[in-house]
Amino acid sequence: MCTPVVDDLWNKPAYILSLLLDEMLKPPEERTEWLFWVDRDTIILDQCRPISSFLPPRILNQVAASTKAHEAAPKDEDVHLIAADDWNGLNNGVFLLRVGQWAIELFSAIMAFRHFRPGTELRFTEQSAMEILIKEKRFKKGVRMVPQTWFNSYPGSLKASTYLEGNDEKGLSDWQTRRGDFLIHFAGFGEDDRARSMNSWLDMLGKTHFTPEAGRVQRNATPDIEAYWEDLEPIEIQ
Questions:
Q1: Any signal peptide, and if so, which residues (predicted)?
Q2: How deeply is 212 buried, as exposed, middle or buried, from its count of CB atoms within 10 A (0-12, 13-18, 19+)?
Q3: Which of 68, 82, 121, 190 has CA atoms 20 to 30 A from the CA of 182?
Q4: Element (H, E) at 224
């Protein structure tokens, strides 16, 4: 990412596309199954949580083998992108992407978007292009929009010291970071404010060894994640 492939923020989908193509050139047994993308303005808060905990449950080999050809494919096999919205719509600063043809087609379409639809307003450049595309019939079935609190919480006005020492959640919005969250994303900060805030949080987290103190977790996403995938129904495409 340090060397631009294309101009401006479009370098991000270009780089992701290059990663996907590199993986698909490998034999299937050697490929990465999922990519976890995070923008550089993020910090992992809970280093004990595996990223795989956000994925749909793995289909057991014996169950998959017993599925008859005429039956529907396991529901999690349709999931290719796991992302979250904020108040502006899609935020693609953090998301999980299954490596495969679907992902290559999506990111190829993102890269081509501004050239083949030049009259479309893209308020957030490549992020807006991605949001438009994943709502279209071609890609909609493969997308799952999950709660922002899973892996894309924002600090807002929350200070590192309050995160560490505070016990009162009064006044905090649901999207604001709490002890127990996996990640904090400094989206929307200016360069100087972002650097100061991230350094403050990193200093604080270094003292705690990036592990929430036992008994002081304010939010645990695990029950919500498990319930979400348990209740998942296939998306019907109109």
A1: none
A2: buried
A3: 190
A4: helix 222-230
| Block residue for tokens 């036992």 | 214
Which phi and psi (to 5°) does residue 69 adopt? -60, -30
Tens-of-pLDDT digits for all 238 residues of the chain?
Answer: 667 778 889 999 999 999 999 999 999 999 999 999 999 999 999 988 999 999 998 643 333 444 444 445 456 778 999 999 999 999 999 999 999 999 999 999 999 999 999 999 999 999 999 999 999 999 999 999 999 999 999 999 999 988 888 777 888 999 999 999 999 999 999 999 999 999 999 999 888 766 666 678 889 999 999 999 988 765 565 5
Q: Which two tokens stand for residue 70?
A: 């005429």
Q: What is the residue whose two structure tokens read 């992020």? A: 127
Residue 175's identity, in one-letter code, is: W
> CA angle at residue 39 from 35 to 43, to 5 degrees?
100
Which of 69, 99, 90, 73 shows the shortest CA–CA distance to 140? 90
β-bridge partners, 84:
91
Tokens (6 digits) for 203: 């200093």
pTM above 0.85, yes or no: yes
Q: Which residues have C-beta within 8 Å of that of residue 98, sequence separation ≥ 6?
A: 33, 34, 79, 80, 81
User: What is the DSSP code (8-state) at residue 209?
Assistant: T
